[in-house]
Amino acid sequence: MSDILMTSDYNEIITKNRHTILDGIFGAQTSPQVESSIGFSNYLSHVGITSSNYYLFLKLIETNNRWVVDMLLKDRDPRLLFSVIKPNNFMLNRAFELLSFWHPGQIYNKVLLSVLGIIEYCFYKPDEGYSIYPLDIVDINNLGKFLDEDKDQFEFINASILEILNRITQLGEHSSELRKSVLSKHAFNIRIAYFDNTKSLMDIIPRVLLVRLDPEEREVKPSKEFIAYMKKIADTGKSRN
């Protein structure tokens, strides 16, 4: 009976303080929120990603706050963060929504690589990926807009995007479905525009999507005291090793 009452009490506390709790673990609008989110990211990083908690990882990635994201990822390869999770429509929808929300230059590289990892894994077999998430031209444009024509094809982000586009060009290879053929051709045209010195991404992707903006100048940082504390903890861990 006491366990039931305790669970009931916890549920009531969480319900009544829902917004305060959510601001504390996913917020990035104030320094205290960022500090709290960093702490939760540290905890979640130790727990590890599972099929039941991957949504929490997504929410923290979506903050696009490098302090929070760095703590969540630690030494992980961002592209592999969600690789242990079976792709699903919800995950892919959130990934493409995030790409549509940010302009090139605004999104933190580790965030972008994490999102690209989701898409690349899902569309490794393009027709299977399409059956999970039937992407459209807008999705492909929002993917291609993050190609940096000033960097070579082996740069991490460029390489990931080009590989995904290459997979999409294979969409519908064994069928005559018109919609898949249109998507395949569009992905092919974006790749060609990147590789061909006589072409530009602007020839294929709407100009407004390609506007490159500076990173958020007002990204909220933890307080100086908190940063000093984090550095002290990190230095202590290194000395023990």
Question: Any chance you could write out the topology, listing elements then pairs?
Answer:
Layout: H1 2-16, H2 18-26, H3 31-47, H4 54-61, H5 66-73, H6 89-101, H7 109-122, H8 126-132, H9 137-144, H10 156-168, H11 178-195, H12 224-240
Count of individual beta strands: 0
Helix content: 55-70%
Shape: globular
Query: Which stretches of 5+ consecutive residues score pLDDT under 50?
Result: none
Q: Proportion of β residues?
A: under 5%
- By helix and strand content, what is the structural category? mainly alpha
Radius of gyration: 21 Å
- Note the gap between the termini: 46 Å
Mean pLDDT score:
90
By DSSP (H or I, 4+ residues per run), the number of helices equals 12
User: How would you spell out the order of helices and strands?
Assistant: HHHHHHHHHHHH
What is the total domain count?
A: 2
Largest sheet: none
How would you describe this protein?
It is a single chain. The protein has 12 helices and no strands. It is mainly α. The N and C termini lie far apart (46 Å). Helix content is 61%, strand content 0%.
Question: What's the short story on this structure?
Answer:
The protein is mainly alpha-helical and 241 residues long. It has helices at residues 2-16, 18-26, 31-47, 54-61, 66-73, 89-101, 109-122, 126-132, 137-144, 156-168, 178-195, 224-240.
Based on the model shown, name its key terms:
61% helix; mainly alpha; 241 residues; 2 domains
